[in-house]
Specification:
The protein is of the alpha/beta class. The protein contains 14 helices and 17 strands. A hairpin with an 8-residue loop joins strand 11 and strand 12. The N and C termini lie close together (about 10 Å). The chain binds adenosine monophosphate (AMP).
Length: about 400
């Protein structure tokens, strides 16, 4: 795996695909700088070597049209503040203006290009467009994990024009190592905690990880499809009736593979999907009509904790309850606390994909787990066992 350490960037210009798709408020202020912070080590290494950096990214979904509200000019000063170097901005990502700015770029300087997605050629993976982008660097660095699952011009196709002069940035390399640690080299016992709303969105992950884990904890809205499929009464809880056969098949496969599956045994049920609804703890297979399970119950949380504490490698994807409502957030917090304790005892814990990151941030767990992935969709696809095109392009696959 070729990383930044394999290159000396002295007098070299690096074309870096970053993920600066940051949230902006109505006045175009950046409301969360984590993605810019995450790219900082890569940019600094290149500048400290004595090279210069050309940064390219997308922002929002302008769908191939110029759209000032999604211009990267809005974030230029924030990037400058975070990196500590005044960033130069050019209001296009290809063409003469960029050619000039690139020709004049000196060591220690940073050039930020305009939103790549102002061109539809970016998302269609157009080779001519990618070739033009490739003119803006001696070495290509991909540090955008969030878009590594897309075969776009700047994330994948452009790499073809750099022969061996391409590598992963620090962030992308960290993501790859974290996934490898869970999926290939993790110390046993390996446990996956899968929550979230639907079985259908997690099915490929479950099928892929059954070969890799010792324990599978299932929580959240997914639970009820499994419970109903086994003949339980789930009241008005969320359920995908057409996935019940699949749920039974997963349980069968798990048994054959020697994976211990841990489903909730009790739940906090509510008489409405509302933070102020009436609640009661009931057995998961005996939820009364008119009630729905919205969080894990106390016995369940005790069971989950026991499994988590004996794990040496932990993957967490998806909340075990409707954590957005305070009344139903306790289960997700308890799981986070158990992972925190296991991590302090030496386990490796990776959190990623979809809403699990939102939950982790909301409850301040990001400092307590070993690694929080920066890519929702890219992480899900990695857990599904797919090789991401942006990663394959650097590996030369
Ligand atoms: P996902 O993006 O698939 O990880 O799903 C996350 C969503 O699942 C969150 O918005 C939770 O509110 C929701 N969720 C978790 N548990 C339940 C439940 N028991 N009933 C309904 N939704 C749930």
């Amino acid at each position: 795996m070729r990383t930044l350490e394999d290159f000396n960037f002295e007098d070299k210009k690096a074309l870096i695909r970053v993920d600066f798709n940051v949230p902006l408020d109505a006045e175009f202020n950046v409301t969360d700088t984590s993605r810019i912070d995450a790219a900082k080590p890569t940019i600094l290494k290149i500048l400290e070597d004595g090279g210069s950096a050309v940064l390219m990214s997308h922002l929002g979904r302008p769908k191939g049209q110029r759209n000032e509200s999604m211009s990267l000019k809005h974030i230029c000063n924030v990037v400058s503040d975070i990196i500590g170097v005044q960033v130069k901005f050019v209001d296009d990502c290809i063409g003469e203006k960029v050619d000039d700015a690139y020709a004049n770029l000196e060591s220690g300087e940073i050039l930020l290009l305009e939103n790549l997605r102002f061109y539809s050629e970016e998302t269609s993976g157009d080779t001519e467009f990618a070739k033009k982008l490739s003119n803006y660097g001696d070495i290509y660095v991909n540090d955008a994990f969030g878009t590594a699952h897309r075969a776009h011009a700047s994330t994948t196709i452009v790499a073809d024009y750099f022969a061996d002069n391409k590598c992963f940035g620090y962030l992308l390399a960290k993501e790859i190592k974290a996934i490898e640690k869970v999926m290939q080299t993790g110390e046993k016992p390996v446990s996956a905690i899968l929550g979230g709303a639907k079985v259908s969105s997690k099915i490929t992950i479950i099928e892929n990880i059954l070969d890799k884990v010792d324990h599978l904890i299932i929580g959240g809205g997914m639970t009820y499809t499994f419970i109903k499929a086994q003949g339980g009464k789930i009241g008005d809880s969320i359920c995908e009736d057409d996935k019940m056969d699949l749920a039974l098949d997963i349980l069968k496969q798990a048994k054959e593979k020697g994976v211990e599956v841990h489903l909730p045994v009790d739940v906090l049920a509510a008489d409405d999907f509302d933070n102020n609804a009436k609640t009661q703890v009931v057995p998961v297979e005996a939820i009364p009509e008119g009630w729905q399970g919205l969080d894990a119950g106390p016995v369940t949380l005790g069971n989950f904790k026991e499994v988590i504490l004996k794990s040496k490698t932990i993957l967490w994807n998806g909340p075990v309850g409707v954590f957005e409502m305070e009344s139903f957030s306790k289960g997700t917090i308890a799981v986070g606390n158990a992972i925190d304790e296991a991590t302090r005892n030496g386990a490796f814990s990776l959190v990623g994909g979809g809403d699990s990151v939102a939950a982790v941030k909301q409850f301040g767990f990001q400092e307590k787990v070993s690694y929080v992935s920066t890519g929702g969709g890219a992480m899900l696809e990695s857990l599904e066992g797919k090789t991401l095109p942006g990663i394959a392009a650097i590996l030369g696959q």
